[in-house]
Amino acid sequence: MRWRTFRADRLTRMLVTVRNAVKQAKPSAILSAAVVPDAIDAAGQFLQDWRGWLDRDLLDVVCPMAYTTDAKLFAAQIAATMPWPATTPSGRHRRVSIDAAQIVENVQAARRVGVSGIILFSYDSLAEPARGPDYLAQVGRAAFAQ
User: What is the rounded distance in angstroms from the CA atom of residue 79 to the CA atom of residue 98?
Assistant: First the structure.
């Protein structure tokens, strides 16, 4: 337990150092982190205390990596970040990172819970030849048409 606490504290200290350096060099820069969506698992297993980092204004953007093909689980993972609004008065944002599986459904689910942006991950999975040459255009029309 002490070892885990030590390591988590070191990661947070590194984040503080990185944030200070980034903001000193370019105050308008946005600092983000892709995080495990379940805050308890994130902190306990992966040393990502993203709730604490948001509370301390150490990040401008949090991107929960909700990589699941289960639509209900996806929506639950994103909704679990709701205590931290999509855009806060201090300018923090909550975006969601979506893998190639079920893109359109997941984009729609993310919008329903109020995320401020969508990140598609990864290009390799999105551009697989088996998906066809027009796949990204199809996703664009279905998920991002205004």
Answer: 14
Total domains in the chain come to: 1
The sign one gets for the Cα dihedral 118, 43, 53, 25 is negative
DSSP secondary structure letters along 8-35? HHHHHHHHHHHHHHHHHH-TT---EEEE
Burial class (CB in 10 A: 0-12, 13-18, 19+), 37: buried
Find out whether 108 and 142 touch, Cβ atoms under 8 Å. no
Please enumerate in sequence order all residues whose Cβ is within 8 A of that of 48, keeping only pairs 6 or more positions apart, or say none: 11, 33, 35, 36, 42
Q: What pTM does this model have?
A: 0.70
Range of the domain at 38: 2-144
96-107: pLDDT as tens digits: 677 666 788 888
For 37-74, write each residue's pLDDT tens digit: 888 999 999 999 998 998 898 988 888 888 887 888 88
Which pair of structure tokens corresponds to residue 140? 């664009």
